[in-house]
Amino acid sequence: MSPPSTVLVTGGAGFIGSHACVELLDHGYEVIVVDDYSNSTPQVLTRVERIAGRFVGAVYELDIRDRRALSAVFDRHAVDAVVHFAAYKAVGTSTRMPVEYYDANVGGTTALLRAMDEHGVHQLVFSSSCAVYGDAGHERLDETTPPRPTNPYAASKWLCEQILADVCHRCPEYTVLSLRYFNPAGAHPSGLLGEDPPDPPENLMPYVAQVADGRRERLHVFGNDYPTPDGTAIRDYLHVMDTVDAHRVALDHLADGPGMHVYNLGAGRGSSVLDVVTAFSEVSDRPVPYEFAPRRPGDVATLVADASAVAHDWGWRPTLDLADICRDAWRFQQLNPNGYAGSARRPNAKE
Ligand code: UD1
Fold it and tell me: Which of 158, 165, 241, 247 would give a disulfide with 132, using CB separation of 3.0 to 4.6 Å?
């Protein structure tokens, strides 16, 4: 089977989705985007096209749970494969709105599968998360670590994986590659695409960027009593450009054969919150004031990927490090101090 040429990207205007669109356009794919802009804006796609120097094939503003609208997209385009990013991703919010999260993330995925099934599309790259491992208590997690999700966001990703595995088990025409990301961060090196966080940001990297920029007074470091060398929590930060490079490689490997395959995507390198503060301060040449605060509920001490399976099977390895992540996040922050607010609208955003 030949690699796909027309790829439907759900959530294509989001943080990882928008970078993935650039990557796929750069590699000659025809890209179709669906997004409901619940956590993004149409302007992002103007920037995607500007970077790639090519147009996205078509853009549809829709919620993937809208079966009729989604089916119409498959009717209009000969989709070869789907890269499915569209999902809610705020861990904290998921604990307050579990029904919303299960409906959007699990219901969205089954609605997508239904549309794929009806149109004979059986190749999917699924956006999963290291969150499925929960508090696994290991130093380095490989894909055999039993999932133990600790919040509805993580549980929704694990439920999706189980559904996808069962579909692959029962329907041998399906190929699903599920990528469990550790902590994607950073921005496109042009400074045109990056993470446009909620106010205030929930995640570390955009928060640190806003502190370095003087928009916020100081970072609250959640916990300094973890069993780690400096007492702050350790994560495996993966540059968003490396993350989307792995998706492009995944599309090539959809042709390897049917079934469900799960891979960790991480750098395999742990950085503490204070490591991030130091690295960001160095690349930005700005102070990043911080104070220690209590642990954030649900956080774990250490989450670092064993990403040797994807290296072994696909030869994929990240090429960028924490300094690159901070440098690119800083460039995006400086060029877009208010995120995407106020940037030019894409003229045909509501196709
Ligand atoms: C979580 C999810 C991950 C998801 C990501 C983006 C888990 C295990 N991981 O990552 O799957 O993709 O959110 O939504 O659920 N921190 C501070 N101060 C802050 C913000 C964060 O000290 O103001 C600390 C956190 O306590 C944590 C680290 O920085 O130790 C990284 O936090 P964050 O960027 O929110 O990502 P995760 O919670 O690791």
Answer: 158
